[in-house]
Amino acid sequence: MENILYGALPLDRAHSIRHDAKALEALRRSPDKLVVPNWRELSLVAGEEAAVLAEGTQAAELLDLASEVVLLGLTGSGAPVFAADLSKSEPEADGGGPALGLGGAWTGLRAVGALLPAGDAALLGYARAMMIWHHRSRFCGSCGAPTEAREGGNMRQCLDARCNAQFYPRTDPAVIMRVTDGDNVLLHRQRAWPQGQWSVLAGFVEPGETLEEAVAREVREETGVEVADVAYEGSQPWPFPSSIMLAFSARADGGTLVPDQHELEDARWFSRDVILRTFDDAHRGKNTGLFLPMHGSISRWLMEAWLGRA
Questions:
Q1: Which residues contact 204 (CB under 8 A, 6 or more apart)?
Q2: pLDDT of residue 3
């Protein structure tokens, strides 16, 4: 799969180094290190062009300021790349985040991810997901005691010696599915979406079910449609906050389309011809017509493949 956002991380994740305290410290002191700043779930971005990374003395200063530091990996040249959580730093007077002297602006990644170079988007997504995991894992889920980062920030350990539980970053699996009936595809709208946007169905996998069962259940619960011939198509990391989207295709096999009004604003069948003729990205943000999700999302990739444009 090409052009899928937040995948193809341009780093060696350096798993073998995470358990070596001396090697981790040497990487932290490395003059070649790069640091990805994070502040309260925001990323530092230079317009729509690139992620902003600190290097040299600025990188060292950010690591000293950070409440959490994670070794993300090594570049192709061997330079270590860290993520630094600066959420405790006070924002500027305009509330736009702390001034670090690096340029750029603090921005929600969801708003700019599709505009960035693929490697930059993947790096910011990985860093964002790790910082959120640290923030939500400060206390032990078994005994409630505080936890502490270990293994270069890739594990947290309970500080109660009687418990000593270890916690690793979690990824929540979600299924996203293109359901077709001949030359028609099932699309839906969420109330919070921009006016005119339609997409394929999606939902989280529940305990005790296979991915294929999750596809069938979600489609049935949200639309009343039964499916068959569920087939895996691909995946996409989705750091909002910590999911992976697992894409499937399926064929409608009975049921009656009745959208669940608690989950959806609407759900309809659209023919391939109607989508090709009337859905247009030029309508995005203008309330002038219909359009599909943004390029780079796996929902858009599923649709482009079905339309013959992938």
A1: 172, 173, 174, 175, 214, 243
A2: 72
